[in-house]
Amino acid sequence: MRWIRRAVSFTVMSMCIASHAALAQTFPSRPVKIIVPFAAGGGPDVETRRMAPKLAEALGGPVVVENRVGAAGIVAAEVAAQAPPDGYTLIAAGVSQVVQKILRPEAKFDPGTSFAPITLTGSAPTVLIVTADTPIRSAKELADAMRARPGQFNYGSGGVGTAAHIAGATFASLLKLNAIHVPYRGSVEIMPALLGGQIQFAFPIAGTGVPHVKSGKARALGVTGAKRLASLPDVPTMKELYGDDLFVQESWGGLWAPAGTPAPVIATLFAATRKAMADPALRAQYQAGGAEVEVSNSPEEFAAFMKAESAKWAKLIQISGAKAE
Fold it and tell me: N or C, which end of the chain has less CB nearby within 10 Å?
């Protein structure tokens, strides 16, 4: 009987291997959908829509982008986590989902277990900005004005726990400033609020903030990257200004598939994404918007990166005092 069980086990294993191999050969046979957790027009949305055509070319099939806005990225993550694990539903997720799980443990997804990481695609710092018509011309002048009028300065974000929120909370906490956080439904609402006078400063992702600085509507006072932005070479980093590594905060993004997606499909998606992100025109577009293309060497490397980032952002959240509201 033992040899029969072994034969059956071997047969089942062989069938699984053959099935996965066949799946890899036929994938994709229909459009691949990428869910974007934020509103259309914001930095993450623009970057994903720029990448999608190149990814479609590499995959040899259509790629569509769908925005699922809500709860600072939680809604999209929960939807993606519950999608069939077949590679046809992906999420352009990143640090926001890592932060949201830390802030809201009850969220019905876990970056470490609900998804199969594919690859990092890029990263960007946030940019400390004010309106161009304000007399404030430096981060120091902004801090001085806030100390002179405590509680009268608001800063906006695309939601609790987003990069703009954590950067603003860190700025206020480390410099002991009294500022009021105003969360919006998405990052695209930050600039209208700033230009409309509802908030006095903000830390939008570079992809959202830089175009307004270039247009002359906003003034950049600092960036939270490890180095200055190529698109804003005269704007100092927050670490340059204050000498604290905690000001180095870069918002990264990548592609995740639902947990359980077959390894051959993940491998196909990984290879196609690397090919897409190597396109010189796409890389130039990212840089023009204040972002940098960054691609993992393997899905396993991306998974390890995510684990390290979870620990880092847990510390930042604790120091900044950011809480789910």
Answer: N
